[in-house]
Structures are given as C-alpha cells and as structure tokens.
Amino acid sequence: MNRLVAECFGTFCLVFAGTGAIVIDQTTGGAVTHVGVAITFGLVVMVMIYALGDVSGAHLNPAVTIGFWISRRFRGAQVPGYLVAQLMGAFAASLLLSALFPANETLGATIPAGSAMQSLVLEAVLTLILMLVILRVSSGPKEIGIMAGIAIGGVVGLEAMFAGPISGASMNPARSIAPAIVAGSASFLWIYIVGPLAGAAAAVGVARAIAKPGASHA
Length: 218
Known about the structure:
Elements: H1 2-27, H2 33-56, H3 62-70, H4 79-100, H5 116-136, E1 138-139, E2 142-143, H6 148-167, H7 173-183, H8 191-210
Antiparallel strand pairs: 1-2
Helix pairs in contact: 1-2, 1-4, 2-6, 3-4, 3-5, 3-8, 4-7, 5-6, 5-8
C-alpha cells in the first residue's frame, strides 16, 4: 500500500506542477514561458524520484511501469495497482486545477500542433529515449545512484523543451488522460496512450541490444 500511495502522490505532484505551469502561463499571459514549463516538468520528476524512489521506484507514468514489466523487472501482479494509483493522482491534480482555474479550457491537456501522425511518432520516440535512460540508470524497477534523478529529470526537461510546442511532449498517458477527460478535450487522447506505450516497449529492445552480456541493465 505504501508503494501505491507514493505513486499516487508522486503522479499528483507531477501533473499538478507540470500542467499547472501550463495553466498559469496561459492565465498570466506567458509569465511562466515555454522554457519555464519544460523546466517545471523536469524538476518535479527529479524531485519526486529523490523523494519517493526508494519507496515505489517513482514510476509516475503508466508507460514506465509497463516498460519495466516488459523488461521483466516488475511483477505483472503489481502493474494494475500502479496504473490505478497513477491515474488517481493525475485526476486529483486535474480536478484541483479545474477548481482553482475554472476559466481555463484545456487544463494543460496535450493537443497536437500539427498532424496526428507527427505527434504520434514524436511521442513514441520521446518515450523511447526517456525509457532507455530510465532502464540504464535503474536496477530492477528502481533508480539507483545519486545522479539517476538528475538524468531522468534532465531528459524530461530536454524533451519538453524542444518537442513541447508540437506534441506537448507528454511521454506519459496519465499526464495526458487526466486533463483531457476533466477538460473534455479528449479527441486526440489516443496519440498520448499509443505513442508512449509503443516507445516504452521499443526502449526495452534497444536496452537489451546495447547491454553488455550479464549486465544488470539488460
């Protein structure tokens, strides 16, 4: 139960801070800026890894949980609980933001700026890169070492920085599902479920291909 509470709270923090930065940027006419939004996402992921990583692994992301399961580092019996906890945390954050900023129409939902296929490919590749880094700096289903949080948070911030204006750089179904459902803007939601899950699965294959024989990062 402590793991599920950690996943719920960690995902709440990620969605509240990350999509909250988008909402506040829109509300204040750009006070946060795109760079600020990207940094916020990177920092909240980094902080949650350091705060909760030793409890639940700080997945905070259904694609990451499923990626760990595909890589055989995470028991299948634990996957449903993690996914439910992550979605509960994400929905709690979006509902709170909706109450705080009722005039905001999207609540930070990820919406493609170009074609659906363009954003689908971007989300798959972005998640592949993120999941590969996670697999390389983790042992089992948990990050290891003092630099793991910086590495993973850095990737999230980097990818949000350059791809955010096109696809939203979600890389996280829970982060996209909650604001889309609460705001009623779920037309493109399938992109942010299919893309990250495909990218996480592909990352497992890449990680195995580059791992040294007998290494723990396979």
